[in-house]
Write a structure and sequence with these properties.
By secondary structure, the protein is α/β, with parallel strands linked by helices. The protein has helices at residues 2-21, 23-61, 106-122, 138-147, 161-165, 196-206, and strands at residues 77-80, 85-87, 95-101, 127-134, 153-157, 173-177, 183-188. It is 49% helix and 18% strand.
């Protein structure tokens, strides 16, 4: 609908040029508008492609793995620590940081405080962290969450089936999921998620 509105506006502009300038200038005006349309299209698509390439370069520089083609994140529905069912698809429209972890995993435990700081930095910008604990009980996970004052979403994968669907053979495993539900990147192992380089990366993602 927006494209048709632009087209109508350009046609109306051309009609105004035609009526004011006379038949002798009609072809010149038409050529000018056609040239501007081509230039606008080239700039639009080049800018979009450049943004995607810059984001891929940023991911690569930080050691993330990129999918070879566009793939949709596998939907799931799991309980949070209060017993509420949360689905990934219910978060559509947000950038999702999807992390697979367990309390017995040292690098998982080590990166959680920096994940909290990352979450606090971008929580007001359609950004969500979902940390999926693999096959531990609620009491055990709740104690860790309380001890570390974590405020992002914690879900329980009681059977491990969601982790298996995402190929989380080693943990922590983290996926970055775009607003449209497509997977942007994956990384294995723990990180300090509150570094300036990673803040800049998420700023790029959220500003698109």
């Amino acid at each position: 609908m927006q494209y048709h509105s632009k087209e109508l506006f350009l046609n109306n502009s051309f009609a105004k040029i035609q009526s004011e300038s006379g038949a002798g200038e009609e072809r010149t005006g038409e050529k000018t508008i056609f040239f501007l349309l081509i230039l606008w299209s080239a700039l639009f698509f080049t800018t979009g492609l450049g943004a995607a390439e810059n984001l891929d370069s940023a991911f690569n520089a930080l050691g993330f793995a990129l999918p070879e083609k566009t793939i949709s994140a596998v939907d799931f529905e799991l309980e949070d620590l209060d017993g509420n069912l949360i689905s990934l698809s219910s978060m559509r429209g947000k950038v999702i940081f999807l992390n697979f972890w367990a309390t017995w995993c040292p690098p998982c435990r080590a990166e959680m405080p920096s994940m909290e700081r990352l979450y606090n930095r971008f929580a007001s910008r359609d950004f969500e962290i979902i940390a999926v604990d693999l096959q531990e009980n609620n009491k055990q996970v709740s104690k860790f969450v309380d001890d570390n004052s974590l405020t992002f979403k914690i879900l329980l994968d009681k059977t491990g089936s969601t982790g298996a669907a995402y190929g989380a053979r080693s943990i922590p495993t983290t996926y970055i999921i775009n607003r449209d539900g497509s997977v942007l990147a994956r990384t294995l192992g723990g990180r300090e998620w509150d570094s300036e380089e990673l803040f800049d990366l998420f700023e790029k993602i959220l500003s698109r």
